[in-house]
Write a structure and sequence with these properties.
Layout (H helix, E strand, L loop, with lengths): L3 H16 L6 H8 L5 H5 L3 H28 L5 H13 L3 H12 L5 H22 L3 H21 L4 H21 L1
Helix pairs in contact: 1-2, 1-4, 1-6, 4-7, 5-9, 7-8, 8-9
């Protein structure tokens, strides 16, 4: 069963994705979640606490999704490129609100200090996952993450989430990745 905190936080993620950071208010979250007025305030007393909660929830959901990838890779007939494409497409479609909100809040220069800590924790978890999964060092993992995230942001900005674009990019990216590791 999903907790009240998760309902509020997931709704707050949707509010940011639909209305932007400026549209994030306790009342907007209450309305979207169809909760009584004041419910969000009971969970997160301040807007900064709400924003921090969003960044923490995004990190939690991202970690859950990343931890499922090795299992998907071990499935009979699994293709690493297809798994990566599906992962990216999921973030651009099904989990678009979360990806969009993560990007929007990550770029916000007024992000509360606690939310910055949550953002950095999330980025560190992604980098560490890439390091473990691909067997590469932190610097290389950062380049991998930046490269794929850049492609995904381009798709997000274009409003396309076009599988053929993601597929072409990931195939070229995997070639580059293999070539870079061989010459390293």
């Amino acid at each position: 069963m999903i907790s009240r905190r998760d309902v509020v936080t997931d709704s707050a993620i949707a509010v940011v994705a639909e209305q932007g950071v400026r549209g994030l208010t306790h009342r907007a979250v209450d309305a979207l979640a169809e909760l009584p007025v004041g419910s969000t305030s009971n969970v997160y007393r301040t807007r900064d606490a709400l924003i921090t909660g969003i960044m923490e929830r995004i990190g939690e959901l991202n970690s859950q999704q990343l931890e499922r990838l090795p299992e998907l890779m071990r499935a009979p007939g699994a293709d690493a490129i297809e798994v990566a494409i599906d992962f990216c497409m999921n973030w651009l479609t099904t989990d678009r609100n979360r990806f969009y909100t993560m990007m929007m809040l990550s770029l916000d220069p007024a992000l509360p200090p606690e939310a910055v800590i949550a953002k950095e924790k999330n980025l560190r978890a992604i980098r560490e996952f890439i390091m473990r999964f691909a067997g590469i060092d932190a610097e290389y993992a950062e380049r991998v993450n930046s490269s794929v995230a850049g492609m995904m942001v381009s798709e997000l900005v274009a409003g396309t989430a076009d599988r053929s674009h993601v597929e072409a990019y990931m195939k070229e990216f995997f070639q580059w990745l293999r070539g870079g590791r061989e010459s390293a």
